[in-house]
Specification:
With 584 residues, the protein is an alpha/beta fold. It is 43% helix and 14% strand. A 7-stranded parallel sheet has the order 10-11-12-13-14-15-16, with helices on one face. A 5-stranded mixed sheet has the order 2-4-7-6-5, with helices on both faces. A two-stranded antiparallel sheet has the order 1-3. The structure holds 2'-deoxyguanosine-5'-triphosphate, calcium ion (2 copies) and zinc ion.
Length: 584
Amino acid sequence: MSHVTRETLTSVLEEIALLLELKGENPFKIRAYRQGAEIVGSFDGDIVARARDNDLDGIKGIGAALQDKLHELASTGELEFHQKLRAEYPAGIFDLFDVEGLGPKKVAALYNKLGIDSLPALKQACEDGKVAELSGFGKKTEQKILEALARREKFADRFRLHTATHAAETILEALRDHPKVLRAQYAGSLRRSRETVGDLDFIVATDSPAELTEWFSRLDQANEVIARGDTKCSIRLDNGLQCDLRAVSNDQYPFALQYFTGSKEHNVALRSRALKQGLSLNEYGFSAAGKATQHEPIPAVHDERDIYRTLGLDLIPPELRENRGEIEAADEGVLPRLVELENLRGTFHNHTTASDGHATLEEMGGAAIELGLRYLGIADHSKASFQANGLDEERLLKQVEEIGTWNDNHGEELWIFSGSEVDILKDGSLDFADDILARLDYTVASVHGSFTLDEKTMTRRLIRAMENEHVTMLGHLTGRLLLRRDGYAVNHEKIIDCAAETGTIIEINCNPHRLDMDWRWWRKARDRGVLTSLNPDAHRPEQFQFLKFGIGVARKGWLRKEDVLNTFPLEEVKEFLGKPKKQR
Ligand code: DGT
Ligand code: CA
Ligand code: CA
Ligand code: ZN
């Protein structure tokens, strides 16, 4: 039986609601499933065990029919009703829901009236002008759908970090377990911690390259073999991600690793530096360049450090290899000592079942303890985010009390800071009055609506929020969703200046869909004295793992330990939050 979690239960109920809506079923029935999903999601206790034991009597909003279904699902891992419902529709129709602006009603109309059951069919129908003729659509909607589809195509060949990292680590482990592999690493954009990756690049050192490429082509994960030679092999995984393997000798390994880590721009600059020293550098090694026969013997190279040393440089961490000043810094010996995952002592901006999280305060606290964190910041949504079940004043203050009780009982082990992810309203005012915010330890101020303001107005809106004494940090600065939606227009320079002046932290939202504020801005922000906080924005305990993506962004942005609030020891954080903003 597959492992059933709270998430399994909620997502199946939500999908049933969607399917029923597609069928045009009775709205009350649909609402019952939606509500059921919400109740299950926020249930205070082990709902999965209770469903398995058929012990759901007396839970408000979960009637007899829903009880039976939850029991079947929790005890067998499947729900016949759900599967039958799903089988009524072609699989491609589920892709339609991912198109921005298409809800169940629109998808149902497209399917029932025009027989559209896939993304290509949708595109064709829009281009033929058929969609505009449907009632409730019109020319404008049709245009919007076409734009959304174009955006999808533009992004179709790239992958977000959680997908890429998971695949890369699984394959790397298998490579390292292979008896003929001496050394192995993934290179490319993933090693440089780019926010998205095009493909994965593996490098192995071996004396049996052909055996390795053959083995690679037969990996379980390989859905398709794109090309296979004696030293190179490319496969495609089930999810479409391409993986390149290059098998080299142990001597060539550091050069191949360096070369295929990139970036291309960094490599070009490095090669021209080498040429000035009379050395030619490529993916196989150093050699004397051109007529320069006078060159001293080329030093032996065992690892990447030796390559950089030969060129008179300190070892440049992969994250910095973008030709944005790292070669100059390495030349002068002033590369920053970058922050590391091990430096983190706590985390801010996390959600619980009080708003749209999937774990209770106690579950989140327990998970933070297991991770070895010393403190945890909770910041549930505020009331304007009603779609995320945002807290009103009364529920917020009740949560503050609960957190007080936690700290009385477990504060020695894990200190919880009470906060709020308070909505920045359209005019830049906040969703809670100052006297309420003053009762919290910290706040994350975020934009969750009115995304379409022009850049000037949006920037003014954010600046007004930052000028509030109670706004500790700015959440997900641009609201971008990687590979799905560009951020709203905002003037980064002005925001960074204002953050520096007001003592407002700008978060690095570590969710792999966001990674916002973008890494390209951080060096500048750091130089102006802006502090960051690496915030997982976790809606369930597993999402604390997002911190490692945030570390990648911070390192890419040249940040050191001292630039990150949540590397501070607990006492220093308390002192920091206790001071007026300007003095921090
Ligand atoms: P991606 O896959 O689009 O996310 O980005 P990368 O950086 O992984 O690019 P990829 O996979 O095409 O190539 C891996 C690395 O190999 C790249 O970062 C630098 C190196 N490389 C590839 N082509 C060239 C080239 O034409 N010149 C130089 N100097 N390096 C190259
Ligand atoms: Ca790549
Ligand atoms: Ca590649
Ligand atoms: Zn948010």
